[in-house]
What does this fold into?
Amino acid sequence: MKSRIINEGELRTFAVVFDSGDEVVAGLLDFARGHNISAAEFTGIGAFSDLVLGYFDWQRKSYRRIPIAEQVEVVSLIGNIARGEDGAPTLHPHIVVAKADGSAHGGHLLEGHVRPTLELVVTEAPAYLQRQHDRESGLALIRL
It folds into this structure.
């Protein structure tokens, strides 16, 4: 993974490029920690060799894992970065990917390996965002 600041104003904007074999979720968390990001949004396009989607099962209060073990195009990757209750960055990434036949699959991005590239733009938000555990859902949700 490589990154570069492309705008240094009141709010920083970064270009973040992942290479073949990079795991995106861990890499983006490392990036957020390394740049001390407390609130941001991101968008991206590219491709994966494999990934795991998550669908939140309300009854079980956990993500159902949906593995996709084939080359796919990233049609849309969007999400945010916020601080968890422990102060560390957390991600909330959603993704839609397309298979070779054009069928689309989407959900929460739990993990994914890039092939050949994934290009993100990460833009800091002007305010600190904090996630807190929500008893009803069992999720860490942004609290305003």
User: Anything to note?
Assistant: Residues 24-34 form the longest helix (11 residues).
